């Protein structure tokens, strides 16, 4: 393939991206950022794909941005190249995304997980924003998304002390949707993704867009936004099919239109 730092495969309408820099615990260098965002954009455009999964290795989802790559840069280097801004493209993916996190999800690794829509954790997962120990702060949205996910108390403590959370605490705090045994992680993530991919893809995209609006606006505006999209679902073939299948007591066959 054309990728050096990731592996990609597709199965049952799911596009899987596996971070693959094992010697660096999947540290997120610029090459990997370009490859993940390009692969995700390809899956997003592919009508045969309904959901994406991003995973790492058993030992590390990703141990952060690549410190060795960042180290030689000065302010003008990172400012002029808008270092890390390309990760925002992952947040623009319209199809649902699932992060399957095993082992370290530190710094940019935690931020990458939080850029995904559903986060599943292995019982071995460790989440943290230890940037402060390096004399920097989170740079891929960590201070914002972690605070929205777990609240100010834990986000402040994590960003100010670098303390990590284990999978149990991350679930209790609302950072992950579920914790599963490490050996089952990828299987569970693919099962969740296949479930999503088996729904109408445009309707799943609308559901994702509507939930995400909750992070961007007031409740009244968000409810209005949802109502408009809910009405719009009635313009789809899949709404006709979904409701017909229910009344006819059969499984729905969605056409993703
Ligand atoms: C570059 C990294 C790396 C990273 C690990 N490695 N994390 N390389 N960037 N973020 C490399 C190590 O240098 C080492 O390579 C190899 O991976 C294995 O790591 P070890 O440290 O030997 O493993 P271990 O002792 O098991 O410790 C694991 C670890 C530790 C606790 C995860 O590696 C660690 O603390 N990593 C850094 C975590 C971190 O600070 N992340 C935040 C990054 S900043 P060699 O070649 O030496 O064997 C960030 C913020 C972005 O993400 C925004 C700020 C601008």
From TrEMBL:
Q: Which reaction does it catalyse?
A: a 4-saturated-(3S)-3-hydroxyacyl-CoA = a (3E)-enoyl-CoA + H2O; a (3S)-3-hydroxyacyl-CoA = a (2E)-enoyl-CoA + H2O
- The EC number(s) given in the record are 4.2.1.17
Question: Looking at its record, which EC class is this enzyme?
Answer: lyase
Q: Which UniProt keywords apply?
A: Fatty acid metabolism, Lipid metabolism, Lyase
Query: Keyword Lipid metabolism, does the record have it?
Result: yes
Q: Which GO terms describe its molecular function?
A: 3-hydroxyacyl-CoA dehydratase activity
Q: Taxonomically, which superkingdom? A: Bacteria
- Describe the function of this protein: Could possibly oxidize fatty acids using specific components.
Family of the protein in this entry: Belongs to the enoyl-CoA hydratase/isomerase family.
Official protein name in the record: Probable enoyl-CoA hydratase echA8
Q: What is the lineage of its organism?
A: Bacteria, Bacillati, Actinomycetota, Actinomycetes, Streptosporangiales
